[in-house]
Every structure is written in structure tokens, then in C-alpha cells.
Amino acid sequence: MRTYRLLIRLIQVASALAFIVLIAGFLGLWGQGGKVPETGTGGNTQGTSASSNLTQPLSNPKIVALGDSFTLGYPLDPAHSWTQRTAEVLQVSVVNKGKVRQTAKDLLSRFDADVVAEKPGRVIIFAGIGDGIQGVALKEVQTNIQAMVEKAKSNHIVPVLALPIGYPGAQQNIKETRDWEVGYAKKEAILTLDFSSVLFDANGKYLSGLSGDGKYPNAKGYETMGDYAARVLK
Prior knowledge:
Layout: H1 2-31, H2 51-55, E1 63-67, H3 69-72, H4 82-90, E2 94-98, H5 104-109, H6 111-114, E3 122-126, H7 129-134, H8 138-154, E4 158-162, H9 171-188, E5 191-193, H10 196-199, H11 219-233
Parallel strand pairs: 1-2, 1-3, 3-4, 4-5
Helix pairs in contact: 4-11
């Protein structure tokens, strides 16, 4: 009988300790404001990002793509651009705001007129190639990209950064911008698009059938870019 009572007492003590641990755990979470630890891998080169930018509600599904000739669809036209393909796959409006010979400074100068005025839910900022070709200092590129991101956020537009892709004769400059942009996107929890991952081989050359001149994508190349962007943005 004594053994039975001792067993009951041990069970009661264990239950009390478990209840105390449960309460302590609850109070610990409450003290943190109920926040869930952040996860995610923002800014990596496969188009993933910290979860905050993927789960926040969009004001609308409309997307503006702001960039240079690689956004425009050169040497073809916007009808054969990656933005058109993305719009077709996602069945949403993707406004092509690409122009030839653009630097990040040029994109910033027309951000209000070409992006804010469109009232999109997201903007894809595809900058850095023109800067690399023209030898613009990295610090200036950084300042202009950051300014565009801040403009987007202040206007309740979700920014997406498309990493610059390689171009003959400007590879090192472009690499420096890419490296910085990856780190910046991770820090700010911004989704990235890395078109290089579907356009180039391990040596930085266009994959077979995706370019006619080794500088710009051809129709198949732009289609491949559009399919990739749609997968990431979806």
C-alpha cells in the first residue's frame, strides 16, 4: 500500500513539473511578442528570399518590370521579351518598362513616372548591366538601386531584384554588382531573380540555342527567362 501511495505521489510531482515547464514556455513566447523566428534565404542566386517578402499581401497582382534592353527584349521587341512570356504564364499584367542603354541612375530618374504611376503590386528592378558596360562606380550603382528599393517600399510596392547577367567585356564589373546585390537582398529580405541560372553554362557562356550573338538572348532565350521568372514569382 505504501508503494502504491509513493507511486501516486511521484506521478503528481511529475505532472506539476510538466505544468510549470509548459507555463514557462508560454511566457517565454509572450515575452517575445509572439514573433516567429525568421527563416528563409533571401538573395541567393536561385531566386529564393526571406519569407517576409513572399508572404506579405500584395496590393494587386500587377507587375512592372523596370530595366534596360534586356527587359525591353532587344534585339527583338517587347512582344518577344521575357516580361511578355511571364505575363502569359502567370495570367497577370506585366508592364514592360525596358529601354536601351540604361544605367541604374536612368532607372531611378524615371521610377516615379514608370513605376509609381502604374500602381503595381510588385516591381522587378533589373539594373547593373548598363552600369557594368559603362564602367559606373559600384558605389553609385548601390546608391541608385537602394534608392529605387526605398521608393518602392514607401509607395507600398514590393521590390524584386533581378541580378545583372553577364555581358562580354564587362564581366568583372557585373560580378561585383551581383555579389553586392545578393548580400543586400538577403539583408533586406528581398526576392531575387537570377536569370544567369537558366541562360549560362558553368563557363558563363550562353547555353546552346539561347543566343544568336553571345551578347543578348534570342527568342528562345527570352522565353526561357520568362518561364523562370514565372516559376519564382508564382
